[in-house]
Amino acid sequence: MNTVFTNAKAGMAGVDKEHVQKVVYEMSKNSPHFKNEQRKQKQTDERIAKMKQRAHGISQTDLAGLTRSMDAKVAHLETTRDLSRTWLTVDMDAFFAACEELDNPALKTQPMAVGGIGMISTANYVARKYGVRSAMPGFIARELCPQLVFAKPNFSKYTAASRASRVIFADYDAEFSAGSLDEAHLDVTDYCNQHGLSGADVAETIRRRMREEVKLTCSVGVGPNRLLSKVAADMNKPDGQYVVAADLPGIKRFVAALPIRKVPGIGKVAEQTLAAFGVTACQGLLDHKGLLAGLYSPISMDFFLASGLGLGQTQHSEPVADGEVGRKGISCERTFGPISKTGELEAKACELAEKLAEEMADEGLKGKTLTLKLKETTFELRTRAHTSSQFISSVADIRNVALRLLRAEMPIAIRLMGLRMSSFQEIRTLPGQRSLSAFIQPAAAGSATAGTEQPLKQQGAAQDFSIAFQHAVDALPDESEDEEPEDANGAPEPHQSSYSMADDLQAQSGRSEDKWREAPLPQQSDLAAPRIAELPSTDLQQSCTGSVGFGQFAAQKRKRPSGAVTGHKRTGIEAYLRPAA
DNA sequence: ATACATACC
DNA sequence: TACTGGTATGTAT
Ligand SMILES: Nc1ncnc2c1ncn2[C@H]1C[C@H](O)[C@@H](COP(=O)(O)OP(=O)(O)OP(=O)(O)O)O1
Ligand SMILES: [Mg+2]
Ligand SMILES: [Mg+2]
Ligand SMILES: [Mg+2]
């Protein structure tokens, strides 16, 4: 049932997947974590059942209408296609592990993972042969590979290597966008034209320079847009490159048989829900567009169709405007041995408040919304938020709000607590004050971007609006297309030395392996990772549940707001017209 | 504005 | 024995 560790990732060719599945199962069953995974899987199964039911209720007439609507959407998307750009996605091979091998070459021939018995962030390709992977707990990895060597993470190495790699990227695209420490997206069109080179030529050059100057290998994907270059970058890992021809036949050839899971944004859940309707390769997203339109939101459909057509971002995002904070949130969370005593819980909240305040101070951030995250010992998640009337940043203010949110949840037994601040005050840039562009990084995480990559969503209920209606509404002209009113210039901030949540209320009537943390480095990207989601469903609530991740740094950033995608012209959306209701 | 789910590195 | 931490987005309420 758990397909997480055997899917869609480089280095898994030739791995005995059945064996890996069995070991993971044997090591996990009976654990609270496993129970939680089962609970989540049940949710997915129920979701699929509801979608099947909905699909069953779609008449031939409905289907015909939905299909026509999607035909129009496809036709429009097709008009946005721009094959004139050349994009490169560069992604380091087994990045953290490779950095560790740099300082300890003996590790190169041994199976090695970066992390500990609790969690692994990545493994070298020798270890991957045994099924060892990112996000796999170390004790399971050791069961799969008893000789596995564990290396402790050392973020300063990774940031140094990343910085060095970015110096290279800047030579080919001064505005490249960083997808993470180990990945970047480059529009090398101008460079190619100026030097009479192909994308493949530049890819070869970058790979050579990376070997020589950074002493690490990377893989490069080349294509007419960022979606294609990104997917292509994984095709010949490690130390390889792959070119998606910049013509319609070449793109169709590449995309048609591509497993949907390879598309960034389609993960474990979307893969399952789509598979339930026979969609396992990207061509299926186009073949079943009518039916899918009856099951997924307009936003998801835009994303699916763009993916099926091989359309992606063709231009970089707008840089972050002056004074704007380049991020949406900042958070700190820690896992520890189970605790439930009031004193211990409050002590954790205080520590996190201090940590968060410190990180915010490093960037001069002040925010209004504080979200407390609690992971129960059962692995179920709870988040509770409060928005203050004033921007806050001090330890005292953060602690006050955090404690109040926490106290409302007790009693509770948890294994993790986290604090996240969002809704930031814009930073007033003082004359002569240069922001931290220290970390070679151009194009700050902007917002609007031309191109097509879109997101997905989740689940919902809204039975009042038929899906057909939603898709029809989505087809209306986009009114907010020509202006960017959002100026948010500012009213001077009211001052108040100390914030108290009580005032607001009145006014309104372990054990953590914290080895994987890193200094808050400037970072950004515009990686537009979709989040799938089915549509409506007459459904009720969801439970909670976990996410994944490792102690990484900042990475993704901005996403585009809404609407359809577009090559880069982004004219309004034509009216597709409603299908039969 | 709040809560939850999904996704990516 | 043991299952991360950080960031983003989409939807419903
Ligand atoms: N789930 C995770 N949790 C924490 N850190 C992660 C996680 N996944 C990846 N990382 C870190 C470690 C990786 O070396 C680094 C880059 O990720 P990624 O490019 O996906 O894999 P990789 O570089 O290790 O191997 P590959 O050769 O497949 O690219 O980010
Ligand atoms: Mg990588
Ligand atoms: Mg990567
Ligand atoms: Mg994917």
UniProtKB/TrEMBL annotation:
GO biological process: DNA repair; DNA replication; error-prone translesion synthesis
Gene Ontology CC: one annotated term: nucleus
InterPro entries to which the protein is assigned, alphabetical: DNA/RNA_pol_sf, DNA_pol_Y-fam_lit_finger_sf, DNA_pol_Y-fam_little_finger, DNA_polymerase-Y, DNApol_IV, PolY_HhH_motif, Rev_trsase/Diguanyl_cyclase, UmuC
Comp. bias regions, Polar residues: 495-510
Catalytic activity: DNA(n) + a 2'-deoxyribonucleoside 5'-triphosphate = DNA(n+1) + diphosphate
UniProt-listed Pfam families: IMS, IMS_C, IMS_HHH
Keywords: DNA damage, DNA repair, DNA replication, DNA-directed DNA polymerase, Magnesium, Metal-binding, Nucleotidyltransferase, Transferase
Biased segments, Acidic residues type: 476-487
Its EC number(s): 2.7.7.7
Lineage: superkingdom: Eukaryota
Domain UmuC intervals: 87-267
Spans annotated as Disordered: 476-542
GO molecular function: damaged DNA binding; DNA-directed DNA polymerase activity; metal ion binding
NCBIfam families from the UniProt entry: PRK02406.1
Protein family membership: Belongs to the DNA polymerase type-Y family.
Name under which the protein is recorded: DNA polymerase kappa
Organism of provenance: Apatococcus fuscideae
